[in-house]
Amino acid sequence: MIHLFRENFTVQILELGESGFIANTKESWWYEGSECVEKNSKKEVGKDTNALELDSVFGVFYILFAGMALGFSVCIFEFLVFCYRQSRQFKVSFFTVVHANFVTCFKSMFEMNSIGSLSRVYSPIKQTQLPIANNKIHRLLSSQSKPFTSIKKGRRPEEGNDAYEGFCIDLFSEIAKNLNLSYELHLVADGKFGEELSNGTWNGMIGELMSGKADVALASLTITSERQKVVDFTKPYMDVSVSLMAKIPEHEKSSFAFLIPLHYEIWLCILFCYISVSIVYFITARISMMAWRDGDERYYDQNGFKYTISNCFFLTLGAVLQRGEDMCTKESPFSSRLVGGGWWFFTLIIISSYTANLAAFQTVDRMKTEINSAEDLAAQTEVLYGSIDGGSTKSFFKNSQSGTFQRLYMFMKDRKTFTKSTLDGVQKVRDSDGKFIFLLESTMNEYYNARPPCNTMRIGGNLNLKNYGIATPQGSQLL
């Protein structure tokens, strides 16, 4: 006997997978419009994140803005001084000179080509309406779990199929359209996927399929050997694995984090050395006769002295910023060259050390946790962990022959850390301050990591590999 119902679904899943529909639909429900994707949605512990974040160097911008404000203030002061001198020279009113010079400066700023206006071209998006399926099938069963199936905001389940949204809804709608089918969707009564009870019966979605309350089950339903003994599955439509979810360690952010790689005592020593070297520059050059030689008038004061105190401070600062000055010539005193050579070597070491420490600081400050695998989790008891009660993840640990996984299951059983739903487990991770790790399927891990408040992450690798599939009662046919 050909199970046409199951075979049609299997062919449709293969075709939709080959066409990219399943991948594109998953991308839209998992990551499209997410606020966390750029922050940490796909980060895993062990990957380098050495990029310097804006939050850590924003203090540099404070300094830059302060410098620009100070420069602007000095510019205004110089402008007023210039106007005052002109008013004294030409014996006219000070305000008249200010007005004339201001008008001249204002006009010169706008003597340039005007910026052309930008034009925007909008193209209307054409909306296409899907044809409505006609042939009615029996009930479609699902489980409320974002992003697979959920009730739309402000809607009620009594309103029918239009009250639901999610990845599974889009997938089955495409299948129904291609097969010219219609369906009635309802949620599983107890909210569970299904596990075998001690009396031999099944609960959840598997139980409703076996009792004839539903014809199709489409959700994040894992294909397992136990389930496949009592229901039929189509070809897998998604590959998943068991993974670990933990809360992202919180680090105190500072706008002046770029100062942290060096201790404050070192910064004070650098400032002291800068002042000291500048003064020594000035004194050695003042004593030396070479600093009084004739040369470029830009570097000499009215007494013919080249190394003024302001020039010395600026010359020392230029070495720190790796900016040479024209006043550093062969005519410089030998004593000043010795001071300058020592200062340049000092700045070379300091800058190199600062750069290395800054990179190391950014690397160490990335997302990290002491637990990176199931072995690490089983080897400790301080951090609690759990999984969904009545799901395939729990069955995996319960039936596993691995000693590590058996220890994990016994710990969860003894501490009663199983959760009623995925959302309950995720919320427990977010509220635990790093003291709870949730074992869940990788697809749900990725989804919730990409959702606000963006404070969860995936740690470690895959614990096992499994698949999602569409389930039907054994012997089901398309009527």
Q: Roughly how many Å apart are the termini?
A: 14 Å
Major sheet: size, sense and barrel closure?
Answer: 5 strands, mixed
Structural category: alpha/beta
Shape verdict = elongated
Strand composition percent: 5-15%
Assembly type: single chain
> Helical residue percent?
40-55%
Order of helices and strands: HHHHHEEEHEHEHEEHHHHEHHHEHEEE
Mean pLDDT: 77
Low-confidence stretches: 40-52, 111-134, 291-304
What's the Cα radius of gyration?
36 Å
Topology readout:
Layout lengths: L3 H16 L1 H10 L6 H5 L12 H37 L3 H16 L25 E8 L7 E2 L12 E2 L1 H13 L1 E7 L16 H8 L4 E2 L7 H4 L2 E3 L4 E10 L16 H24 L21 H12 L13 H31 L9 H5 L5 E3 L5 H8 L3 H13 L6 H10 L4 E6 H8 L6 E4 L5 E4 L2 E3 L6
Parallel strand pairs: 1-4, 1-5, 8-9
Antiparallel strand pairs: 2-3, 6-12, 7-9, 7-10, 7-11
Helix pairs in contact: 4-5, 9-10, 9-11, 13-14
What report would you give on this structure?
This protein is an alpha/beta fold. It is 46% helix and 11% strand. The protein has 16 helices and twelve strands. The strands form four sheets. Strands 7, 8, 9, 10 and 11 form a five-stranded mixed beta sheet that branches. Helix 4 crosses helix 5, helix 9 runs antiparallel to helix 11 (334-364) and helix 13 (392-399) packs across helix 14. It is elongated, with a radius of gyration of 36 Å. It starts with a helix and ends in a 6-residue tail after the last strand. The relative contact order is 0.16.
